[in-house]
Specification:
Length: 1092
């Protein structure tokens, strides 16, 4: 936008009269900006074509597509940009582009009026295809060659389901090219059936779409009678989606119907389809994570369905009978009876035979034979099951309690009001399951959550959001059987892979990495040799959701076991070694004191966008392999070591279980018996979807922060608690000096309660430490009443500490660059920045400093005259720990470095002038390809960008074995400890790294600009830098190839540098700081000014 609010990018038009030339024309609506050049650049590597024009607000370029293909490659994806010159930029600080501060590259796209209709079809460039398209952000790209990606997003506008009429309105938006065809498909997950429904009516809305992106509205009916019936006796889930074919692509894109929003979902109702022999209840539901529409088709005998419908209209009459009858329904998935549900049911039928407990199972399940001898079996969907669902006072399920209901219809959910108990089907932690089992999950509701350890309880409370009173540490029911010493150990390697939710279809599974990698391991010569040499067998158990794929995993020495063929508990107890990937049975096996080896070749995809609750490399009770060669090697090493568990992994295992005994079912029974409380209806109301939606709406509104500030002002008037609050990097990390002060405090005697402000899934060492989400209501209440704050960044300036609150600022580095009041340039700062930080600094009671040099710089930069604790940086105690070698090995494991190559840590600082919107960005100046040519064999480069840098460097495929991006690694100090050499520019981590005495290289390609125009330094960098200062990648490469020489030449300077700037980093800084903070004078600190 210009100063008047009008869009600067006015209009854009693309046409292609033939297969050779692409005509691009447009205009900027600016009096000062002109276009000088079109830049066509390959997006994933070298290759560029530029076209100049006379500067002007209007532009017109003719792109020779043949020349562009030759310049960028026959398979290139080419991004288009404009070189824009604006004379007003010359009046600003020339920091955005040091070479020419008045010119910038603008991606071609996002014009107020965009027309690519004349170029959107597939082009033939001398027999090779090319496609011009608008990508998701509205920018123009050209794709050459075959295998172009087809992109589109779908959005459901309206959805209505009734027996007489069912229809939808959806939109396809952001299509990468014009629509060729579309069909509506319904597919059964179990039966693999696929049916094309009535084709939608298509309305082209591209002309009115934003940035000229191809947009279409699709409308049509949903013939529910073609979704069911199905031939199978069990219920089935049917996915419904569009098969979309775009021009220029030979593959369809699958786009789903989604939830149309909370209010419009009310029009999506259950539908009854009557039949002569079988009647069907069609239940629409939306997936918890993706909100995709699917249909669950439930099959009933016609008389049973009619009975259920009549019963639910009068169910309120039966409410008083519920507590009197004392009916408990127990179960697992409808077809299962061998997990915690079965074990608890067997226990209760054996020890509490008078208890009216019933097991719910599908009549066709092969595992029905497990529960039949115990009696009290309810056939799912029977008339008795329907009645008992309404009358039950307890539902005990390993999954959702609704699996035990006779139906998952809305009315059945409404009147099935018994206490819901989650028996669980394994120890939680590996995969982030908050969307499925969290307090705010739309589908999962529970009144009692059973776990196995205090650590797991802390996870369920803090990460899943369940109230502490709803979570009980009982252990799992199957552990009673697990710890029965009644099975001899056999020479068996038990293999149990977990489920992948993206492999529900046969065609997806057949071409999956999952099938390729597991079969590669099973057939691996090294693994097969281990089996043959040691007389071992290897049972292979597939997850129940993958039971249809058993035939794919046949190999020599491997026995594939299907559902119900053998009891999993028996196999666990009789096996000597387990190989798994992410399955919770790995924890069970480790509890027996036996070794587990993990195969996590697809960890990133399996975990998805949500992080694990565990530090998998540091907390899983077994060694981890990422490829089949390494896995075969680890199995060989474990077998050769006698299949004994290492002490380190035995210790890890103990953190996941509190009760190693056979009283788990007794504890569960007692917890379930007392689970009902008079406050239960209020608790359910608080945890309801409606309450969650209302709070979320309030949280996003403009009223939230004023309300929280008012809450804080009131709460700070209350007496302070004996509570210390830690925070690092505004809740984004568990690291820096606050972490090491906290961990040292735990090791000392203290009487303080502790809370961490942390928005991550990190598991804190002490389960009793409260973990609090930043800016939640609890955040404001906790800060208001805490006795001490310890943080490395400023708490928001509008939160003045209460009287009696001691504010400890650890800061986050020794200052090399000038800061705050010492910086002359205001580049990268908003107008009120200094006023805010000055106000926040005024609240500090203590500031930590690592050296006299830092103390002087801090007082100058912050204008701070308060107390300074000059005792070293607690975060650097890590460098002097006795177990440093173990920590280094763990860091290498987290970085997936399975060899002994040297780590070259490249950690540049941010540039104030390099911004994109409100975020700092960085452009990688170091030529990684040049380094790779000479260093790949013996070195690996680990990238670590500053936390303020928001753009991510995409590492090309050919460099991924040589370069690792560790920007998201939680603790910088651990990376420094593991690094063999540090490459930086002006980052303060040079002062920390100096304590290690290892070589440093300074890649300062813009030294004069940074020093003289941006920041300036507190020391003479040229004279004191403890390593060579270099300006080119070639010079950096030469230094890396002569590291021994660099270390020798700069050894004395590194020593004197550390003595001057890190003189107190001796491994005991945390203790000295805590000694100061937790003296009587500090604890009884009182502010001179009253709280207001």
């Amino acid at each position: 936008m210009d100063s008047s609010g009008a869009p600067v990018r006015k209009w854009l038009s693309l046409t292609a009269a033939d297969g050779r030339t692409l005509h691009i024309s447009g205009a900027l609506a600016s009096d000062t900006a002109v276009v000088e050049q079109l830049v066509c650049r390959r997006s994933d590597g070298p290759g560029e074509l530029t076209i100049d024009q006379a500067p002007g607000a209007e532009f017109a370029f003719a792109v020779d597509l043949i020349a562009l293909r030759e310049a960028c490659g026959a398979d290139a994806k080419v991004a288009l940009s404009l070189t824009v010159h604006d004379r007003t930029w010359s009046t600003m600080s020339p920091s955005s582009l040091p070479q020419d501060s008045t010119r910038q590259l603008w991606r071609l796209g996002k014009f107020a009026s965009t027309d690519i209709g004349g170029a959107s079809q597939l082009l033939d460039v001398e027999g090779m295809p090319a496609l011009v398209s608008v990508i998701g952000g509205g920018n123009i790209v050209i794709e050459f060659g075959e295998g172009r990606s087809a992109r589109a997003t779908s959005r459901t506008v309206q959805l209505s389901l009734h027996r007489s009429r069912s229809h939808y309105t959806a939109r396809l938006e952001g299509c990468s090219s014009a629509l060729a065809s579309v069909s509506l498909v319904v597919a059964g997950r179990e039966s693999q059936s696929r049916t094309e429904l009535t084709a939608p009516t298509i309305t082209d809305m591209t002309s009115s779409a934003e940035f000229g992106q191809h947009t279409y509205e699709l409308t049509g009916p949903i013939p529910l009678d073609r979704i069911g019936p199905v031939e199978e006796d069990w219920d089935e889930i049917h996915d419904i989606y569009f098969d979309v074919l775009l021009q220029g692509s030979d593959k369809t894109v699958r786009k789903y119907l989604y939830s149309p929003g909370a209010l419009k979902r009310r029009a999506v109702r259950d539908v009854v389809l009557d039949g002569d022999d079988v009647s069907h209840l069609v239940l629409p539901y939306f997936a918890a994570k993706t909100h995709q529409l699917a249909f669950r088709v439930e099959n009933f005998a016609p008389t049973n369905l009619r009975f259920m419908r009549r019963l639910l209209w009068a169910a309120w009459i039966l409410t008083p009978l519920r507590p009197v009858l004392g009916i408990w329904l127990i179960g697992e998935l409808p077809y299962k009876a061998q997990d915690n549900g079965f074990h608890f049911f067997r226990w209760i039928r054996t020890t509490q035979p008078r208890r009216r407990a019933f097991y719910v199972i599908d009549p066709q399940s092969p595992e029905r034979v497990n529960v039949e001898p115990l009696g009290n079996v309810l056939e799912r969907g029977s008339r008795k099951h329907i009645l008992y669902t309404v009358l039950a006072s307890r539902f005990l399920s390993t999954h959702h309690a609704e699996y035990l209901f006779a139906s998952r219809s809305r009315r059945m959910k409404r009147w099935s009001r018994g206490v819901r108990v989650s028996l669980r089907h394994g120890v939680m932690g590996t995969k982030n399951m908050t969307p499925l089992y969290g307090r705010r999950s739309r589908d999962f509701k529970t009144d009692l959550f059973l776990v196995s350890s205090a650590m797991e309880r802390e996870m369920i409370v803090h990460d899943f959001g369940h109230h502490p009173r709803k979570v009980a540490v009982t252990g799992l029911a199957r552990f009673d059987e697990l710890f029965a010493d009644d099975v001899a150990i056999e020479r068996t390697i038990l293999i149990i892979p977990s489920w992948r939710d993206w492999l529900s279809r046969e065609e997806e599974f057949a071409r999956s990495q999952y099938l390729q990698r597991w079969t590669a391991f099973l057939q691996h010569p090294g693994f097969q040799q281990v089996l043959a040499d040691n007389g071992l067998t290897a049972p292979f158990i597939l997850h129940p959701n993958m039971r249809h794929y058993a035939s794919h995993f046949e190999a020599a020495g491997i026995s594939v076991i299907g559902q119900g063929e053998e009891e999993v508990q028996h196999l666990l107890k009789s096996s000597a070694l387990m190989v798994t990937d992410y399955s919770s049975v790995g924890f069970d096996f480790s509890f027996l004191g036996r070794p587990v080896v993990y195969f996590q070749f697809d960890r990133d995809r399996f975990l998805g966008s949500l992080p694990s609750y565990l530090d998998l490399d540091a907390q899983l009770p077994g060694r981890i392999a990422f490829d089949e060669d390494h896995l075969a090697s680890l199995v060989r090493e474990t077998v050769d070591a006698g299949m004994q568990v290492a002490p380190e992994y035995a210790e890890r295992s103990r953190r996941f279980i509190d009760h190693v005994d056979r009283n788990n079912c007794q504890r569960i029974f007692e917890a379930v018996h007392r689970a009902w409380k008079p406050t239960l209806p209020l608790t359910r109301l608080r945890d309801s979807n409606t309450a969650g939606s209302l709070f979320l709406r309030f949280r996003k509104s403009r009223r939230y922060m004023p309300a929280m500030k008012a809450l804080y002002r009131v709460a700070r008037l209350l007496p302070t608690k004996n509570l210390v609050v830690f925070e690092s990097s505004n809740g984004k990390q568990y690291g820096d000096s606050p972490r090491y002060l906290y961990e040292r405090l735990l090791a000392r005697e203290h009487d303080m309660d502790i809370a961490w402000i942390n928005n991550t899934t990190v598991r804190l060492p002490d389960p009793e430490t409260a973990k609090i989400v930043r800016f939640s209501p609890r955040y404001f209440l906790t800060l208001a009443r805490a006795r001490m704050w310890i943080t490395n960044q400023n708490i928001p300036h509008y939160l003045e500490p209460a009287r009696g609150t001691t504010y400890v600022q650890t800061w986050h580095g020794t200052p090399l660059k000038r800061m705050q009041h010492d910086v002359e340039s205001d580049k990268g700062r908003d107008k009120g920045y200094l006023d805010r930080v000055t106000l926040a600094t005024g609240y500090w009671d203590y500031l930590l400093s690592p050296s006299p040099f830092a103390t002087t710089a801090f007082r100058s930069a912050f204008r701070y005259d308060g107390k300074i604790i000059e005792e070293g940086y607690p975060r650097n105690d890590l460098f002097h720990r006795d177990d440093a070698d173990r920590e280094i090995a763990l860091v290498r494991q987290r970085l997936r470095l399975q060899d002994d190559r040297k780590i070259v840590l490249y950690a540049p600082t941010f540039r104030d002038g390099q911004t994109r919107g409100a975020s700092t960005v960085d452009e990688l100046e170091l030529d990684l390809r040049l380094l790779r040519e000479s260093l790949e064999r013996d070195h690996v480069v680990v990238l670590r960008f500053h936390s303020l840098v928001k753009n991510r460097i995409r590492i090309p495929v050919e460099l991924q074995d040589f370069v690792t991006d560790a920007t998201d690694y939680p603790d910088t100090q651990e990376l420094l400890l593991a690094a063999d050499v540090l490459i930086t520019d002006y980052s303060s981590i040079m002062f920390d790294f100096a304590s290690l005495g290892r070589p440093m290289i300074f890649f300062a390609y813009d030294l004069e600009h940074y020093r003289d125009e941006l920041r300036g330094f507190y020391l003479d960098f040229d004279k004191e830098a403890p390593g060579p200062i270099l300006a080119t990648t070639s010079a950096v490469l030469a230094a890396l190839m002569d590291l021994d020489g660099v270390a020798k030449r700069y050894g004395d300077r590194i020593t004197s540098f550390a003595a001057s700037y890190a003189p107190l980093d001796d491994g005991h800084a945390s203790d000295r700081v805590l000694d100061v903070l937790f003296t009587r004078s500090a604890i009884e600190h009182d502010r001179s000014s009253p709280s207001g």
